Protein backbone atom coordinates (compact mmCIF):
# COMPACT_ATOMS: atom_id res chain seq x y z
CA UNK A 1 0.00 0.00 0.00
CA UNK A 2 2.76 2.45 0.93
CA UNK A 3 4.73 1.51 -2.17
CA UNK A 4 1.80 2.50 -4.42
CA UNK A 5 1.43 5.85 -2.64
CA UNK A 6 5.15 6.58 -2.93
CA UNK A 7 5.08 5.69 -6.63
CA UNK A 8 2.10 7.99 -7.30
CA UNK A 9 3.73 10.82 -5.30
CA UNK A 10 7.01 10.47 -7.21
CA UNK A 11 5.16 10.33 -10.53
CA UNK A 12 3.20 13.49 -9.67
CA UNK A 13 6.40 15.30 -8.64
CA UNK A 14 8.12 14.20 -11.86
CA UNK A 15 5.23 15.41 -14.05
CA UNK A 16 5.00 18.71 -12.14
CA UNK A 17 8.74 19.35 -12.43
CA UNK A 18 8.99 18.64 -16.15
CA UNK A 19 5.79 20.48 -17.06
CA UNK A 20 7.05 23.62 -15.27
CA UNK A 21 10.51 23.30 -16.80
CA UNK A 22 9.21 23.38 -20.39
CA UNK A 23 7.24 26.61 -19.98
CA UNK A 24 8.66 30.06 -20.50
CA UNK A 25 7.99 33.16 -18.48
CA UNK A 26 6.84 36.28 -20.30
CA UNK A 27 8.37 39.37 -18.74
CA UNK A 28 6.38 42.60 -19.11
CA UNK A 29 8.44 45.45 -20.51
CA UNK A 30 7.57 48.95 -19.38
CA UNK A 31 8.45 52.04 -21.39
CA UNK A 32 10.98 53.22 -18.82
CA UNK A 33 12.89 49.97 -18.74
CA UNK A 34 16.61 50.14 -19.42
CA UNK A 35 16.20 47.04 -21.60
CA UNK A 36 13.97 49.06 -23.91
CA UNK A 37 16.73 51.61 -24.44
CA UNK A 38 18.96 48.86 -25.83
CA UNK A 39 16.34 47.82 -28.36
CA UNK A 40 15.00 51.20 -29.47
CA UNK A 41 17.82 51.24 -32.01
CA UNK A 42 18.06 47.52 -32.62
CA UNK A 43 19.79 46.13 -35.66
CA UNK A 44 17.83 44.28 -38.28
CA UNK A 45 19.63 41.05 -37.34
CA UNK A 46 18.51 41.42 -33.70
CA UNK A 47 14.90 42.01 -34.71
CA UNK A 48 15.05 39.15 -37.19
CA UNK A 49 16.24 36.80 -34.45
CA UNK A 50 13.61 38.04 -31.97
CA UNK A 51 10.82 37.59 -34.53
CA UNK A 52 12.12 34.21 -35.75
CA UNK A 53 13.10 35.49 -39.21
CA UNK A 54 9.86 37.49 -39.37
CA UNK A 55 7.71 34.37 -39.46
CA UNK A 56 5.48 35.41 -36.52
CA UNK A 57 3.06 37.61 -38.45
CA UNK A 58 0.37 39.01 -36.16
CA UNK A 59 -1.52 40.96 -38.81
CA UNK A 60 -1.25 42.65 -42.17
CA UNK A 61 -2.44 46.24 -42.14
CA UNK A 62 -2.72 48.63 -45.08
CA UNK A 63 0.89 49.28 -46.11
CA UNK A 64 2.55 47.31 -43.31
CA UNK A 65 2.94 44.00 -41.53
CA UNK A 66 2.99 43.50 -37.78
CA UNK A 67 5.26 40.84 -36.26
CA UNK A 68 5.49 39.41 -32.75
CA UNK A 69 8.87 38.70 -31.21
CA UNK A 70 10.55 37.80 -27.94
CA UNK A 71 13.71 39.50 -26.70
CA UNK A 72 16.48 37.45 -25.06
CA UNK A 73 15.28 38.75 -21.67
CA UNK A 74 11.86 37.18 -22.30
CA UNK A 75 9.93 40.38 -23.03
CA UNK A 76 7.49 40.28 -25.93
CA UNK A 77 7.78 42.95 -28.62
CA UNK A 78 5.85 44.00 -31.70
CA UNK A 79 7.76 44.99 -34.84
CA UNK A 80 6.25 46.85 -37.78
CA UNK A 81 7.52 46.58 -41.33
CA UNK A 82 6.07 49.45 -43.31
CA UNK A 83 6.35 51.04 -46.70
CA UNK A 84 5.61 54.50 -45.23
CA UNK A 85 8.48 56.81 -46.10
CA UNK A 86 7.59 59.68 -43.74
CA UNK A 87 5.64 60.19 -40.51
CA UNK A 88 2.75 61.93 -42.27
CA UNK A 89 2.16 58.84 -44.40
CA UNK A 90 1.11 56.81 -41.35
CA UNK A 91 -2.70 57.07 -41.43
CA UNK A 92 -4.89 57.30 -38.34
CA UNK A 93 -6.59 54.05 -39.38
CA UNK A 94 -3.29 52.17 -39.45
CA UNK A 95 -2.35 53.79 -36.12
CA UNK A 96 -5.63 52.61 -34.56
CA UNK A 97 -5.17 49.05 -35.89
CA UNK A 98 -1.58 49.01 -34.64
CA UNK A 99 -2.52 50.19 -31.13
CA UNK A 100 -5.35 47.66 -31.00
CA UNK A 101 -2.97 44.82 -31.89
CA UNK A 102 -0.43 46.00 -29.30
CA UNK A 103 -3.06 45.70 -26.60
CA UNK A 104 -3.44 42.01 -27.56
CA UNK A 105 -0.06 40.92 -29.02
CA UNK A 106 -0.75 37.22 -28.58
CA UNK A 107 -3.73 37.17 -30.95
UniProtKB/TrEMBL annotation:
Keyword Translocase: no
Topology versus the membrane: Single-pass membrane protein; Single-pass type I membrane protein
Compartment(s) where it occurs, according to its Swiss-Prot or TrEMBL record: Endomembrane system; Membrane
PANTHER family assigned: OS05G0471000 PROTEIN, PROTEIN MALE DISCOVERER 2
Protein name: Uncharacterized protein
One GO term describing the cellular component: endomembrane system
Organism: Eragrostis curvula
Residues spanning the signal sequence: 1-19
Coiled-coil stretches: none
Broad class of where this protein is predominantly found: membrane
Keyword terms: Membrane, Signal, Transmembrane, Transmembrane helix
Amino acid sequence: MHCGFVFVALLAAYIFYYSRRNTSTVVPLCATSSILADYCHARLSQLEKACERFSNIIDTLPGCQLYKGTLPCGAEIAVVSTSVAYAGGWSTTVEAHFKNKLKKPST
